[in-house]
Write a structure and sequence with these properties.
By secondary structure, the protein is α/β, with parallel strands linked by helices. It has 2 domains: 2-189 and 363-452, Aminopeptidase (3-Layer(aba) Sandwich); 193-358, Alpha-Beta Plaits (2-Layer Sandwich), CATH 3.30.70. Helix content is 34%, strand content 22%. The chain has helices at 2-8, 10-21, 34-45, 112-133, 155-162, 219-227, 251-258, 264-271, 282-291, 331-344, 368-381, 397-400, 429-452; strands at 50-54, 62-67, 75-81, 101-103, 106-108, 139-145, 171-174, 178-179, 185-188, 190-202, 208-209, 296-302, 312-313, 316-325, 351-358, 361-362, 386-388, 391-394, 408-410, 414-415, 426-428. The strands form 5 sheets. The protein has a 6-stranded mixed sheet, covered by helices on one side.
Length: 453
């Protein structure tokens, strides 16, 4: 009955997803999130959700909802976000990013894979369950925020003020996860943290003629020299004290990860690179990807970068730098050692401006919520899922889950070609409708863990 309901409502379900994707919820560029939150609110209320829009000073609203029997033996926390990445560069999109279009079995739109298809498919799964099976076997508590794409700067305040409302959750379903090239669901039980900084060097009061380079210091050179102290040519991070706080994986964990499927050659071909950093291959590449911190120059700007030439000595130079964090690194610690490192090397004048920051998070792959997700993935796909101890990307899992002792797992409806954060972002339609079935199977298996507990 469940599958028949989904099939009968297939066109409506797809129309709902497309309507949500038409909302240009780029909160990092000034969208206030109101239209997106109202859409989510209406859709959650339609499945019987008790919904509240939580206002936090300086932040777009957070949608908080509870649905399902209050007396259920199991409580599930679900985390999603409605904000999306900016669509630039627009010229690389085949169709406008906020005008969803179906082409060759794919739905193209900004934010469809990250994270709107996951939001909508989960809500639709609850609707289909209620229509065909009756009351949910679990109590679901939903958090849908609007700042994930800029580091969730206000989510800690939400957790501080409202954490008591969801601290009793027995597990959390995280926002993301994908299918690999072989059609296997990839499940994630953790995330790296992130510490994002702006480094700024200043020179003269205004840009000058480049002939003044004989006398006036060039902040662009100053910044380049400072950046050069952060990493060695062999990619070793040189920031003193940072690596001292990196907790290595234990032997059992390493052995588990080395047995996971990972095709380095296929990934290199997809990215168009001749070799990975350190020439690592397969198992060692995956270990590095999951357990090594990073130091990345995300962008540099100074002086003139337009067409033709302009002989200018810039007055300012700016670099955006991020560090992906593994246990036991924190954003605060990285800020401290970065500042000390620059001072030690004579760059006291380089300004360090902290921006986004979240701690790394890690849940056991053996937790009931992770095992329920794995059972659901087997049921829907007929294939053994791949359970990763963590994702190489970042998100506020520590804030909502680790800090309250709530184990987490992530799965979703994307695939290896979803182009997340890139032009022509997409999901495959069959993956989307499989995602509705996956959510229902997950609810079923997670509800059964109450009897086994």
């Amino acid at each position: 009955m469940f599958d028949a309901y989904v099939q009968t409502n297939r066109d409506r379900f797809l129309d709902e997803l497309m309507a949500f994707c038409r909302i240009p919820s780029v909160t990092s560029e000034g969208d206030d999130g109101r239209e997106a939150t109202q859409w989510v609110q209406r859709r959650l209320e339609a499945i019987g959700g008790e919904v509240e829009l939580i206002a936090l000073d300086g932040a777009p609203p957070v949608v908080y909802a509870e649905v399902g029997p209050p007396g259920a033996e199991r409580t599930l926390l679900i985390y999603n976000h409605y904000d999306v990445q900016p669509p630039d560069p627009l010229e690389l999109w085949e169709t406008p990013p906020f005008e969803p279009q179906v082409r060759a079995g794919h739905l193209y739109a900004r934010g469809v894979a990250d994270n709107k298809a996951n939001v909508v498919s989960r809500i639709q799964a609850v609707e289909a369950w209620q229509a065909t099976r009756g009351e949910l076997p679990v109590r679901i508590k939903w958090i849908v925020e609007g700042e994930e794409e800029m580091g969730s700067p206000h989510l800690a305040l939400l957790a501080e003020r409202h954490g008591h409302r969801f601290a009793d959750a027995h597990g959390c379903l995280w926002e993301s996860g994908y299918k690999d090239a072989d059609g296997r669901y990839l499940l994630y039980c953790g995330l790296k943290g992130i510490a994002y900084f702006e480094l700024r060097a200043r020179g003269a009061q205004s840009d000058l003629h480049s002939s003044m380079g004989t006398l006036v210091p060039n902040p662009a050179w100053r910044l380049v020299w400072a950046l050069n102290t952060l990493k060695a040519p062999d990619e070793t991070i040189l920031v003193e004290g940072l690596m001292d706080h990196v907790r290595p994986p234990d032997p059992d964990e390493l052995e588990y990860v080395r047995q996971l499927p990972f095709d380095a050659a296929a990934l290199r071909e997809r990215y168009g690179v001749a070799a990975f950093v350190g020439n690592v291959e397969d198992a060692e590449a995956l270990v590095r990807h999951l357990y090594a911190p990073t130091c990345t120059i995300c962008g540099i700007h100074s002086g003139y970068g337009g067409p033709g030439s302009k002989t200018v000595l810039p007055s300012e130079a700016v670099a955006k730098v991020d560090f992906r964090l593994v246990p036991d690194l924190t954003p605060e610690l990285v800020h401290e050692v970065l500042r000390a490192h620059l001072d030690k090397h004579g760059f006291e004048d380089i300004e360090v401006i902290p921006m986004d920051g979240v701690r790394p998070a890690r849940s056991p792959i053996t937790s009931p919520v992770a095992q329920a997700a794995a059972a659901a993935a087997r049921q829907v796909s007929g294939l053994e899922p791949v359970i990763y101890p963590n994702m190489a990307a970042s998100g506020p899992m520590y804030t909502l889950c680790d800090a309250f002792g709530i184990p987490a797992v992530g799965f979703g409806v994307g695939w290896t070609g979803s182009n997340v954060h890139a032009p022509n972002e997409n999901v495959r339609l069959e993956d989307y409708f499989d995602g509705i079935r996956l959510m229902a199977a997950f609810i079923e298996h997670f509800g059964r863990t109450a009897a086994a507990a």
